[in-house]
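Q: Can someone sanity-check these two? First one:
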Amino acid sequence: MTLPIPELGDLGPDDEVSVEEIPHTPMQHDHSIARALALQALYELDLTGHPTGEVLNAVIQRMDGALNDDITDYIRTLVQGVQRFRPAIDSAIQLFAPEFPVKHLAAIDRCTLRLAVFEHSMAALVPVSVAIDEAVSLARQYGADASPRFVNGVLGNLMEDANLLARLRATYDNAQGEG
């Protein structure tokens, strides 16, 4: 990459000038970006009932070509997976958030929990620590003040239940064998 030559002002011909190119490191990992965009899509789907394909396409198009194929594929995997397995995911969440029916949880918390449960507990795409850390980060960014603590508590307890995790993975694996 060629950098523009800056105005040097009062420098003479024997003065030394050094230029350093500092490489840009992305603020987030590709999958973190995909999770945030998947959460936005899930939130819209949850509140509006729009068709999944239309919402996915709109979220991806809003990024105006800034997403690579890995990110768009991961967004689609997450959103389509959550939508497909939402009843099983909601039943699992309900066990660890018994105060309210899942449909009465704050929409952003509900969608964040669904995303993490699918990504780790069903599809086994990430380790438990990543699923919880990323979900808490999303809750901190998009949710209310109490959201990170709530999401952490529900997911921490849910993901310690080996029998539940086995049932969720079996549900996912059986569906993959059919499809």
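And here is the second, same format, sequence then tokens:
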Amino acid sequence: MREKRSELEERLLQGIHGKKELKREERNRYLGEYEERVIRYLTREQVREKGIYPEILAAMRHPAARKLIVDRNIELGAANEYIKLARENGLQFKRVYSPDFKGDVGLVVVSDQAVEVENREVMPRKEQLKEKGISDTIIENPGAKLCNQCWQELREKAPEELRNYSRISFLDRVIGVKCICKKNEK
């Protein structure tokens, strides 16, 4: 039977080995945060993709959202749009790094308390759009200017993605800008 350690022994052990840390592995996975405080997260690869994930914008607007945390290994330019959105939505922002971080989490939107969230992980954009029946040409070109037909396809099947594209304007047509669907017909 194991005897309970005295307070002095506990303090000596903490002095030698450092303070006991709860759920260390979990905190190393979510950029230093507890899983129950994470509203949504993206992998490093997802953060580096062109365009904004609507799920992260929705997470930033969650009533309990308080902070956006980005892995310091991600270039600032890749996370810039998310940082801008965090500021617009009144969230604190910080970049973190630790050699102890595990996994591929690159960005988290967190609360300062536990939140009840059904799914914290965000499905990759390409998979989501493919499931919705969006054409590969549109999927592969976030940020592209779209003709009315492609714009309508996106509006009907994935309206949350419209912010990641723009519609070809009259001026664009005059100067010869073509939709990505027309460029691929050559």
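A (reply): Looked at the second one. Residues 32 and 101 are 8 Å apart (CA to CA). The chain has a mean pLDDT of 90.
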